Amino acid sequence: MLTPTDTPRLFGLAPGADFATGLVAGLIARHGGAPDALARVTLLVNTRRMQRRIRAVFDAGPPRLLPQIRLVTDLALDPIAADLPPPVAPLRRRLELAQLIGRLLDADPTLAPRATLYDLADSLAGLMDEMQGEGVSPAAIATLDVTDQSGHWARSLAFLTIVQRYFDRAQEPPNTEARQRLVIERLVEKWAATPPADPIIVAGSTGSRGATALLMAAAARLPQGAVVLPGFDFDLPDAAWAALGDPMAGEDHPQFRFLRLFERLGVDRRAVSLWDDAPPPCSARNRLISLSLRPAPVTDQWLAEGPDLTDLAQATAGLTLVEAPSPRAEAETIALRLRQAVDDGQTAALITPDRMLTRRVAAALDRWGIVADDSAGQPLALSAPGRFLRHVGGLLDGILTGAGLLALLKHPLTASGADRGDHLRQTRDLELSLRRYGPPFPDGATIRAREGGWADWLATVLDARPEPGDRPLAAHLADHLALAERLAGGPGQPGAGGLWNEAAGRKAFEVCDTLRRHADAGGTMSAHDYLALFANVLNGAEVRNPDTGHPQVRFWGTLEARVQGADLIILGGMNEGVWPGTPAPDPWLNRRMRQQAGLLLPERRIGLSAHDYQQAVAGNEVWIARAIRSDESETVPSRWVNRLVNLLAGLPDNGGPAALARMRADGRAWIAMAQ
Fold first, then answer.
1. What is the DSSP letter of 161?
2. Which residues pair with 626 in a beta bridge?
3. What are the φ and ψ backbone dihedral angles of 395, each rounded to 5 degrees?
């Protein structure tokens, strides 16, 4: 299926190209006409969303045998590692780390505040995953040069010694990252000894993680193997590629991860060929964006190459710059354009990492009865079951206030299995009594004095609250869920009412059931620590109902810019600190120490965001939207918007200022209509 070659086989699709469509077109063009040729191909992709999208392209017809489409992460369960124990659930490992950190803080409270226990466990688990995925051992960390870091390093080392046991397979079963790297290393050895006869293609990954990069390098060297890179910049010259060589300077460039792959394979960028002959939506736009994103050491190339951009009118056609006066105005303007897209029969996608912006836009769309298909869904903690469970959790810790009790009783899920109207009437009467006569801290005796079946039910529930004190996690969770189900069921009703119904209820049940299954790893804790843990677990889950969204309006995260396409793309929240986001603080290793150890630099995430931006901004019709001011102060435009604006403004002989003025004028017109 693939032409024999002595060099690694690398292909790419240009920014803006529909990756799934181009990938399928290239496969069909190369399959040679044999009916079973495609069925013998194994495609390895990096997200389930990409997997679904590729299947949807194949499903569009005509009928044919399909390739095997597998996730790279599924390799952790490959039969080649049948002798390894199954991976440990992430929640279980986190609970184990929290116990170890808790004992360390008990022995030396000066290391960190107790309130940061679960945040430290999350951060330490993330560092351990990264070390195992990148193949970095604790010994490599221990031998770092810590000159001028002695105080901080001594504290970090006290925590890092905790994870050493998890690198010894004889002591602890592996987590998912460790098992995946072990499996990939075995696959690479097997492929080197006996290369598979059927094609293996790794598609859509940038190789940003060490284990994935190892797999991509091995697949590219196979006789019937290939790598298809998304959003590869064919317009980037050799001088710019050379400037990316220093990771301390080039890590935040969108093409940096590809350079690392070339270095691993011993090739240069000329080894990458086009996978599909279909042109990108706008080649002139790609050249403009490529020049604007040149790495900082070579931005002087703007002066030399900028005058060669003679087609700026074509490059900026369909490009609109929306600079709204406030976040609310930005959301209102975006919502208005999405509504226009629905009226015009267009598909439209808002791409942003800012979840507050998507909520504002969703609220604005609600006035027209439009519900967007939100790929990220809703945080479980903000859903009705999530809020209800958090309210019920307040019964486990501290003194119950009248306001807290009334907030719980008024929740839509309280008494959802009983006569809701009678419950609301009783709640109203109780509220009038508590606000007029008190007491401020009601209990079971206070409620029982009102008499009646409803009062007896509520008093019985309040009396069932456990006594404060340290107890096993399983006991806290059992009491929490028992109280929640009795309150949701209502007076005289068995079951949990509507608590576990619908998509949000099912997700809440799944999360609680997972916590129940691993509760034995949580040890003993106070009610306060339990509620902090429960809140963090809820915050880590999302609820998505794919059946409720409008088929033409979608909200996507930045990663989806690589694999999805729409008639209209809106890049929202294009401000510094939002897109790209501020790198998360690392309590363990500074930037220099990470480079010495072979771990990923904080700029890696910025580089991946830059790649997503380069993909998305290359579409047919694109909006770049930002708010000039936040709720507190003036904002700073995203570095990529700043570069694009400055490049256009500096090319008066090519019509750059006129193109920029047109982009801004279009944006102002939509802002005025929204107002």
1. G
2. 323
3. -75, -15
